[in-house]
Design goal:
By secondary structure, the chain is mainly β. The chain is built from no helices and five strands. It starts with a strand and ends in a 23-residue tail after the last strand.
Length: 74
Amino acid sequence: MERIRVIHDTIGHTLTIWLGESSQEYVSTLTDDEILVMKDREGQILGFEVLHYHPGSSDLGLSVETIIHPPAAD
């Protein structure tokens, strides 16, 4: 995984997180928690979208935590 894209749509009230290339999306399914899960043809998860997303406080904005792990040794 080279990059993660986080898209907060303040008008549509969604939060979309892409873990892969959005152009490779083949199918998406809606969970009972109103989260769309996007997958490629092989069934690998490319991303997910949280519907009806509202941040806890408009003053705080969107907080993203990044954890970087070194590549595994061969």
